[in-house]
What we know:
Number of strands of chain B: 0
Order of helices and strands of chain B: HH
Number of helices of chain A: 18
Radius of gyration of chain B: 19 Å
Strand content of chain B: under 5%
Number of helices of chain B: 2
Oligomer: heterodimer
Helix content of chain A: over 70%
Structural class of chain B: mainly alpha
Distance between the termini of chain A: 87 Å
Largest sheet of chain B: none
Number of strands of chain A: 0
Strand content of chain A: under 5%
Largest interface: A-B, 57 and 38 residues
Helix content of chain B: 55-70%
Amino acid sequence: MHTVFSVAVVVAYVVVLTFVAWRARAAHEFKEFSLARRALPLALVFGSLAATYVGPGFSIAFVGRGFNSGLLFLGIGLAYAVQNILVGLFVAPRLRRLKGCHTLGDAIGQKYNRDCQVLAGVISVCVCTFLAAVMAHAGKVVLSDVFGFPGWSSVIIIVGVTTLYTTFGGLRASVITDAFQFSAFAILLPIMLLFVLIFHLKGGAAVFAAEAIDATSAGFSSTSFIEIIGLVAAFMLGETLIPPYANRALASRTTRISRNGFILAGIFSMAWFMVMVALGISARTIIPAGTAEDFVLLKLVKSVMPAEGYALLLVVVVSIVMSSLDSLLNAGAVAFTQDIVKPFAKVPDNKALTIGRSATIIIAMIAASVVPFVPSIIEGLLICYTIWASAILPALIIGLWIKQPRPLAGILSMGVGIAVAMIAIICLFVFPSLIDVPAIIIPALGAGLLAYVAGHWIAKIREERQICQ
Amino acid sequence: MSVIIMILVVIVALFAIVSGLWVARALIAAISHNGSLPDTQNNTDEQNNNQDIKS
């Protein structure tokens, strides 16, 4: 009887999701595929942003970190919330105000030159692909652990389904399905937390507080100061305006909606991290102490929920993965078309749409094949954050703010930033005991910034010399 | 102190639930308009952005 109800719950969810995706309709032009015709209202910008960043890292992994490190990761997560709010106040409106931009690469191209746009496009596609691989890895963890599927088939199911609706629907399908998935997990996971606190937490508020203190102390004692700084830097900068977020800023109906969407997403993230960490802390009284980080949420759900609720929550967890994955696939495909293909060839709209769709499929296939090399969810994310923050952020943020950004500064900062990030990542794999993942973002970002300053200064001197001559 | 922490946790959980309901409402409105979002593609960027004077 339980199995019948559980299957019915899963089928009902899939039917509703399919209906929502179908109602989003296929994109018929590239502007629809890439920007949803710049028609996104506030609630959908907010919901889609939140659904994109609430991936397995900010859900499954955060519950695990709450389980092991208490409130430590809540503090680190607040850096992410601050970033969103600052982006909403100071960066997203400036981005939205640029004319004719489909991508971040477009914005960089307008501020610097075509070479910078192409390099930004290559970096965007690579980061989207690697992040998609991390999402696919998380999906594999869920489906393999729960249903016992072989790893490769779990990856194919998750990536295949997501690729299908993203390929045909583009950004609009991604946003509409994100909104549905956001509604599901934003409602159900907090309800589950309340359920655990009321019915399963042995000892009530006093025990919760005691476990929070124990876990937080353990977290601080096992994490070095430089690691904490690195984690704060990574969460503050690592996802700043990654292509899916930039696309939503550009697709907002107005600059005000763009700004408010990011601010609301930042405020929501504070609440979300608190819910996830609280789930992890509550789990300390319910599941065994040595449970691996990425399995805490699943084991907690299995322990406390009735069979039907378990099935529904599993589907919600899979939705969390898919809502991030679809945004990354779409953003990577749009970046490929707009920043790598279009600068070199005049491409009519229908051909651009075909290229975008093909790129979605190819990026999905590459992401699926990289899954075996993903270390863990958080480590995979931190590696991607290091590349993105050091390669793109100095050129993007400074370029949006100063009057005359120099192309040499853009090229140098992106080139040096990514080179130092890649060297640090290689060292991480070669000397794993010597280097901590969170710490590598600091030298890489520093190198990118220094290279920008140097490039700007050199370009300025050259211009002054030319004027003198 | 522990009770205060618990109350705070409950408040943020309720905030998250309300956010989910808000987006669900917008989603229903979006897909009930024949599956399309309002069409502003013939508006120029300035026409759309002029809706907010101060940003």
